[in-house]
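This is your field. Please look over both lines of this record.
***
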Amino acid sequence: MGPTPSRRSASQRGQIAPFYVMEVMRAAEEREVAGGDVLHLEVGQPSTPAPSGVIAAAHRALDDDVLGYTTAAGTPALRERIATHYRDWYGVDIDPARVMFTVGASGAFVAAFLAAFDVGDRVVVPSPGYPCYRNALDALGCDVVDLPTTMATRFQPTVEMLDEVIARGGPIAGLVLSSPSNPTGTMLDAERLAEITRWCRANGVWFISDEIYHGLTYAGRAPTALEHDSDAIVINSFSKYFSMTGWRLGWLVMPAALTETLTRIGQNVTISAPTLSQLGAEAAFDCHDECEAYIARYALNRTVLLQGLQAAGFDDLAPADGAFYIWAGIDHLIESDRTTDSQALCSKWLADLGIAATPGVDFDPSRGHRFVRFSFAGSTEDCTEAMARLKDWAATSGGGA
């Protein structure tokens, strides 16, 4: 007999933290399968369909197109539409050759991280923030530098904070942030965004700007990093404003220094983004009226949640300038022994109230147990009913977790 083969096991780089919101979605689904009702305030996706023009264009493509591969960058027509979009929305001229489509914004982040960073590079990720930044960087061997933010800076970094990071730990290779933010909904104004882009350029730091929630704003339009630095790595998607999550189509605006590298990564990792999605998305920019109607509903839902949470005793709320999230502190519930942390609280709410919300540990590894993220992307009826149930729960003496 030959030698006993060694046991096969998962790689160390695959030992990353879960994306807890997906765990909440799974628990909510199990409740629904068992016959229970669920008010979905956990998931960050629109409950509305893709715009009608997109659906019609996709039907035409199914009837008339072979639907083969595109180039790694994507169809020329859609790349031109993206360039027109930047001129129309931001007054920024970009070469369509700098646009590359990806399998959702998630695919864009992995491609950008591979192109910009080497193993061991220090990359700053503010918290609270989208957990998949940290997890993907960790899997790729980068040294993730957590940068805690507070309401004092509207849960966004400042150049002074970035200076402190370098003073404490040495140079950094990158900064990844979103504006509007997931989970806080806070937004960088043009002045602070300009300061950060200038700081990154002066310090040789790649600035990766997640602009996936652009268009979903309630206090003025969000500026793009490209207004201040043409070499910023800008990532966006059709998922949120255009209500096309399942179409899995994101895009990168590539800096000149990384265009060839990113193209080769795309060629080898995905070949191309889904062709049907690209052909449908060409019509998306003719559907702003439908999208703006969705925004009006989000704005109403935002008011319902902000007022409902305050009525239920939640006073520590981020302002939610954009996106469709409320970031709510729960210290008052912990201090009154009504719960131990956000995970226990969210489990209790799902079991007892049928309210699915996301524990803050997904977004802040050190302080997230003190926060809950609520999504108002669903129906106004669900948001209203959830707030009514939460108010009743808060008024009872036996509602603790």
In short: The mean pLDDT is 94. The chain has two domains: 13-49+288-395, 66-286. The chain is about 40% helix and 15% strand.
